[in-house]
Structures
1.
Amino acid sequence: MNNASSRTKKLIIIIAVFMCLCNSMVSAFVFSRIGILKLGNYSLPASSLNGTLQGLSFTICIGMVILDYNFGFIMASVCIGISFFGATRAIIMGKDMTSLPGTLNCILYILTLVFISRQLKLRKKIELTDKITNVLNRDGFEFVVRRKIHASDRGVIAFLHLRGMTDININLGRVRGDAVLHAVSLRIKKIIADSGDLFRLGGPEFALYLSSESKSIEIIEKVIASIEEKIEIESENDTVNVYISCKAGISDNISKYKELGEIIKNTDIALNHALKSDVLKYCVFNEEIKKSTDRNHEVEGFVKEAIDNNYFYLVYQPQFYIKNKRLRGFESLIRMKLPDGTFVSPGEFIAVAEKSDLILKIDSFVLRRAMEEFKTVLLEYGECYTLSVNISAKELAIPGFANRLLEIIEKVGFPKGCLEIEITEYSLAIDSENTVENIKKISENDIKIAIDDFGTGYTSLSQLLKLPVSLLKIDKSLVDNICVDGANRDFISAVIYMGHLMECEVISEGVEQNNQLSVLKELGCDFVQGYVWSKPIDFTSAVELCKEDVCKERAVR
Ligand code: C2E
Ligand code: CA
Ligand code: CA
């Protein structure tokens, strides 16, 4: 119930009180003076209408209680109390027992109103209570927090999201899933004790209100830790152990807000931020997070429109043989240009697209476009320059990706042996069966596999040995320090040595300086990609470069 509707209800109740008072006045001062009412040939003692007026007042009082079982009940009791007082006064002062039935009616009315108000309260309580956990539900949360806002409370709101409930419901059934939720609610209640309230918002989401005096962050940390401990669920014959994880979004000092909707939105933003993070267990809302969320939404909108509106195009960064600067091939890199001429960097929109399935659209677009553009070049020069295309971890983990890739290659008519798929170390960390199967199928079809960002820490050696990898791409972060850090240089040397042992070739990316180039040459690195020899270039320039390289080749012959 929001403030406006609560004010309207109060106004209606006050009008109703006024009507009841008018009834009492009419009965006390008008009817007693009229004595007998003449209606044509009929006469009627006016006092006999008192009962009708009292009945009318009672009906109005019931309406007040139904409208608001707290405020309405108090006001209705006042109205009936006044009637009761008038009737008893007549009995005591006037020694007139004709008001006795009215007095008894008042007592019955009060009892009836108490009963109705109690029933309404109980019904409301049931409506606001979550059946599984016995704590207040989403409506209850909104009811309580609206009151806190109204009272300028400085407390904290946290949303808790449990991960793993869907699997529990599927594997163990909903009854046990409900038992887990119940167990979780008991743990949380035990920790928050008198410091606040717990609510279940629905599904795997709980909310906490913690008072401003409590050590809210400490409590939330304890709550998360306790939820993540083993939960034992009893069933008829056995006990099952389940584990769930939990993340939280927090809005502190709710007195800053005027609207409940704003608190909910900001706490959701904070929760979403924590859910998307690999490291954060909880996140406290602040303006920075809001800005980055808004920007992400904006960028997501651009990505959705990009393919249909031609915002995407490709550039190609040349890769060279380190020993003679001959052209090995190109890595295709996507670019986004908006109609107003501004660019959105791939670092930004790829990260946004990877959070949804939009990355799959990007991968397909790049594959098709890069192969279509380069097919003519390869056919014209009769050479096999390698075309490297980045493929996301998500795409690679989809069953049947390899088959779809082969279909695209067939449709475009691209020479398979000139294609290289770049996958990041992170894709291998996912270690799904589908990823491995796709990689094997791609390799069996004569397509090269490169491990991108190598050395950033995900791949295990044993995993690498199992896969048909043909190229290791040493990450720029390692190359950056090669001339200043001996350990770094030794590490790169070991990677090159290991790569060659595995019958892989090795390329260093992000090479910017000649001294880095000299060290890499000395260490036996095969190829180089970086600003030192070429930035990413447009397709026309890439074709020119191929032409120059072919001329060099002919000159050598
Ligand atoms: P990446 O695959 O590691 O690509 C190399 C990035 O390093 C490119 O940035 C490239 O322009 C940049 N680079 C190359 N040489 C140098 C250098 O000498 N110095 C410096 N400072 N930078 C250099 P870009 O194009 O901004 O791409 C960033 C990332 O976006 C890529 O990293 C890749 O993860 C992703 N990406 C780019 N294009 C695609 C694509 O078509 N598909 C997918 N799935 N991801 C893409
Ligand atoms: Ca790459
Ligand atoms: Ca890379």
2.
Amino acid sequence: MSELQDLYQQVILDHNKQPRNFHPLEGKAMRAEGHNPLCGDRLTLWVDRDGERLKDVGFVGSGCAISKASASMMTEAVKGKSEAEAQALFELFHGLVTGEAPVDADDPRLGKLVVFAGVRDYPVRVKCATLAWHTLRAALSGGRTVSTE
Ligand code: ZN
């Protein structure tokens, strides 16, 4: 394993062990549930909006290290951004983990999310990595349950 991959692994393990924004939101926050039956990942995601801006994002759930770390880092990445910026970041992230679209790993918008670049070599893990993002999209579009199947 290269030093870089090793570093990426450490970031993912850290977020899995101590997920950020790992709590429900109170009040008028919008909420959606995500489920990845292939792996057994489940999460509930809350988004509190202030106009276009995603003022606060929180989640709870259980699943594999990739799904939990991805949810944790997604909340950090989109908090404070506009909905349009969050959608654009999802497109970028999706391209990164699926390898379907060419993505510049140095794109400053990706930031730490680049640690998920290796997921493209494990197609079954793509759903783990994108679950939180699909759930965010569901919450923003009115809240419902999403399943990766
Ligand atoms: Zn998983």
3.
Amino acid sequence: MTISLKGKRALVTGSTSGIGLGIARALAGAGADIMLNGFGDSAEIEKIRAGIAGEFGVKTAYDPADMTKPAEIEGLVASCIAQLGGVDIVVNNAGIQHTAPVDAFPVERWDAIISINLSSSFHSIRAALPAMRQAGWGRIINIASAHGLVASANKSAYVAAKHGLVGLTKSVALETANDGITCNAICPGWVLTPLVQKQIDARAAAQGISVKEAELDLLGEKQPAKRFTTPAQLGELALFLCSDAASTMTGSAYSMDGGWTAQ
Ligand code: NAD
């Protein structure tokens, strides 16, 4: 099946790295123009932006909006519309992690995780919906997690935010069910990105084991399939959710988690 997104404009938050970048590349590969967002070295980001434009022959732009700041998120959606001519697809992907027992969880980290991993999606969705409704077509994809469906110890803020994001997904799907718009969540298991590399390195240091051993240890603890999902594989799932074949798939959470949540 060939999916064409030619003429569609996709905004992907947190797309300077990891899963967001994989999804941006998959959508660009199908012809969508891409608004990139996220932090990082500006020369590196410009290389990513120009690289996607050159490789796939699509328009690309970049906006450094901080997902903790509602006004900047509104500005990001406005800048997508101004620079690319519209906003047809929103992928809410930016996210951070912090692990600590709930009674020792730094309040500032709790607030940051809730705002970046949950509230930012509320802000981008409310800003983008009017344009999607006017166009009579839209795709909203929220990158939740296996932790949007089940919990792990020491991840209270992350688990709360991701469960919240799955809930937000369902409400938005109901409110847009007859507007040509779908809203779904993707729930990955382990993906080897900088966010997870930090957890592997911490595990290796804490247990005095090699990074390779820490990787297997991390996978073995939760995920029956002891290998990582790739950002490119998640990009293909996001692309499918943008296709016409997926026009009645809405309000659901799709796992790509190596069997994690089947247990
Ligand atoms: P990553 O660290 O590689 O990428 C995170 C992206 O978010 C980066 O582009 C970063 O610059 C951006 N970002 C962080 N804070 C931001 C802010 N305040 N404003 C704007 N951008 C910001 O991480 P990743 O693993 O690719 O994670 C992407 C998403 O996937 C997250 O929501 C994460 O929770 C989710 N996820 C990851 C995994 C995994 O195993 N890696 C599993 C399930 C879900």
